[in-house]
Amino acid sequence: MNTERIYAWTPAAVVFDCDGTLMNTENHWQEARELVLRSYGVAPDAAFTARARGVHYTECGRLMAETAGRPGLAQEITDQLLENFRKLVADNPATLPGAAELVRLTAAFAPLAVASNCPRDVVESSLGQAGLLDHFAHVVVPEDGTLPKPHPEVYLTAARRCGADPGDTLAVEDSPCGILAAVRAGLRVLGVGPYPEAEVAGLVDLWLPSLAEPDLLAWAASRTPRPSAR
């Protein structure tokens, strides 16, 4: 990793993942999965949790149906997963450390978008309750034929809607699935969260334990808009 790839650069646009990056919802997804699987008499293990993290909710529902030994109930299980998740998010729409400040700072110098595998209503509701939605010019999710991460389409679409080339755009991500999507789209990538396996860490330009890192916030505060970002 090379910090200069981020800290010596002003992106023309910034695209944030939502769950686990801006919003503290990864535990909600885990709890929602567990609630559904336990209703079918299954206790998910660490291997399942790792496979399910960051994937599109329909793929997660399919994995859950297979894990429960009920492959024919994939749609029903997906619906149950979303129902539980929406309830949990509504009860506790919390942001992750540094997320709100970084969004406000980056919005001062570049257009922002969200690229998420979550349903649009979940993304917009959680960001709205956190007071962040108005900072984003675009919310891109897998709908109307748009493919979910790890396919690069949500990131390519977000960069295009922001009027930026992918190579001039920064992605902020926490999951291997999302990082792979951003890399495939040609964006520079800031990874955030617990330090990942070497294979994942090697894909990103910079990995930080938190969006509240002082150097990151100081970098964002020091940027000025690029002419191409207007």
Q: Report the sheet with the most strands, covering strand number, pairing sense and barrel closure.
A: 6 strands, parallel
Number of helices: 11
Percent helix among the residues? Answer: 40-55%
Poorly predicted residue ranges = none
Write structural notes for this entry.
- This protein has 230 residues and is α/β, with parallel strands linked by helices.
- The protein contains eleven helices and six strands.
- A six-stranded parallel beta sheet has the order 3-2-1-4-5-6, sandwiched between helices.
- The two termini are 30 Å apart.
- 44% of the residues are buried.
Task: Write a concise synopsis of the structure shown.
It is built from eleven helices and six strands. It is α/β, with parallel strands linked by helices. It has a six-stranded parallel beta sheet, sandwiched between helices.
Secondary structure topology:
Layout: H1 4-7, E1 13-16, H2 26-39, H3 46-52, H4 57-67, H5 74-91, H6 99-107, E2 112-115, H7 120-129, E3 138-140, H8 153-161, E4 169-173, H9 176-185, E5 188-192, H10 198-201, E6 206-208, H11 214-222
Parallel strand pairs: 1-2, 1-4, 2-3, 4-5, 5-6
Helix pairs in contact: 2-5, 4-5, 6-11
